[in-house]
Amino acid sequence: MTKLSKKNHGEDWNHDEIAIREARHHDPFAWLGQHRIGNDNQAIQRVFLPGAAQVELQTPQGWVVMTMQHSDGIFIHNGEILPTPYRYRWQDSLGTHEAYDPYVFSPVLGDLEVYLFSEGRLYEAYRHLGAHRRYHEGVEGVLFAVWAPNAERVSVVGDFNHWDGRYHPMRVRGMSGLWELFIPGLELGEIYKFELRHRDSGVVFVKTDPYANAFERRPSTAARVVDSQHVWKDQDWMTARTQADWQHAPMNIYELHLGSWQRDDKGDFLSYGELAERLLRYVLDMGYTHIELMPVMEHPLDESWGYQVSGYYAPTSRFGNPDDFRAFVDAFHQAGIGVLLDWVPGHFPKDDWGLARFDGTALYEYADPREGEHRDWGTYIFNFGRNEVRNFLLANACYWADSFHIDGLRVDAVASLLYRDYSRNEGEWIPNQYGGRENLEAIDFLREMNVVLNERYPGILTIAEESTSWPMVSRPTYVGGLGFSMKWNMGWMNDTLSYMQQDPVYRRFHQNDLTFSQLYAYAENFVLPLSHDEVVHGKHSLLDKMPGDTWQRFANLRLLLSYQCAHPGKKLNFMGNEFAQGTEWNCGKALDWDLLQTPWHQGIQWLSRDLGHLYRDLPAFYDLDFASEGFAWVDCYDADQSVLSFLRRDRHGAFILAVFNFTPVLRKNYRIGVPESGRYREIFNSDAAAYQGSNVGNLPLFAEARSWMGLPCSLELTLPPLAALFLQMD
Asked: Residue limits of the Glycosyl hydrolase family 13 catalytic domain (predicted)?
């Protein structure tokens, strides 16, 4: 029950009444609702209903007509203290209405939640802020809560109150900057925003909810009240994940953009349900272990690919509602496939209805553009120095793990968080307190994020897209690392693609591009990415990067994918790589699946499928990805012939011999050292006829007791042109 307050009349009355009518009262609960008069059992009830012609109040004796205090919609009643909550009904031009008075309910947010939020440690803020269905003081309704410390007044607006900010001004929670309002009787599905009035300028503006769980479909930007009804069926997966030894497990990631992987016959988006059915079947067939979704958080612009997020707590409505996305994740888990999400904590768009200048000030972003703007991207940078902003992002990471059972976050553009001078010229950035270029606040945030996620959700993965030589990105925070599980190996990607784009006749001069990675391969837990960033903006598709005629281009691509499979590190490929998408990726349409009607592209897809299953089935390919014991050069010096050979081992000593011929020259009687005598057979040959190769290979053969390349035994092999061979002992 609301605590009754005493209120003076006269000047205070007039001041409060005017402020309520003008929608600028900072604390509407101090005047609206029910307030005790004097020390007896008398009270005054006040209602503000613009446009109402008559208002009646429900009392134990029945309905009584309230007195119109002002034609703007102020109605009062003097009488006994009424038991709360009580109802009123009113008449206006649209008819007769009845509701509970929102201004007689007590606060919903507890003092502990308010304190933890101010401290930046309310990791379940998504359960308290935003819009949530509640049963409060015996009444069903919706609780709205938002952070806007520089607002004079905040109101909830929507269809239910004609988008008029006078109807539902919110309760301010002391000096915390939090505002809340429980609106009784409000139903699921309602759309809403927040109307704010700036405390200094008096400017009134409307913002969408930073913590909203759902939105209207673009281009509309209103939030929607939702409540999950999904019943999870992935308990076996989630239990096993807590015990998973991911460092020694296969990880072959299929990166995709849900809006352009496939579309329906009319060119429209598929739903989450349709995507789950088609994509899951495809992923299982191809041998992938995980999918990684480019940002599914709500975003207004398709061309941003999701990286300019406007709704951090809402799966995009392009493909369905939040429960549809939960069912999507659930289906993959039940089939044994992990789901990773791209996550963008480094920046957000400047749309005037979103986070930008949320309460009329630089609230979520740094105020100084030398700290607060990414000019390259036209976005704002989160102010990691504010507890509440860090809380927004920390709780968001927890939200996707908790509410959607996400298995990991690939954190976008980590370098832009680490360095204050990222993509800035001299004079365009501000050093840290010690005069350095490191963003100490963002570094602390990343460490806290990794610690919090791993403590709360055992087995969850965090992967850094980090392109610099920052040390110990994937090392624990207690030894000075950033705490990520893994890091994208951008050096491997750049060097390998640079090498593969060379005409084979010149590759002999660039062998170091391939061998250099072993100098740092175990300094981090690496993922080898051939991602979306490599097939856009004039960089060409992977196929178009390859030199030579048609046969050589496809052979080179088969060789590249095979080399990625054998090289230490977990694997990631962007959609389309697996069947040699011919043109650059275009987010506005589906991939060119009709290419699979041609044998060249079929061959790449069959090769990708075979590599996927081979990789999953043979621990030597993944068991010791992050340890030097899992790799040994056989020969890295044959630059003249552009041949590389190495061994991959598992913890039990089983090994695979991988040999790569990076020229179109057929090489016969090529001697290779091996560690043991015995019978060796090809388990994979990228030149096989099934892949549209020339079908040159080797029958099973026995190793000679002839030392070679520092190994006690050796084989004589035929090396197919532009091809990879994997051999294993019987």
From this structure: 255-613
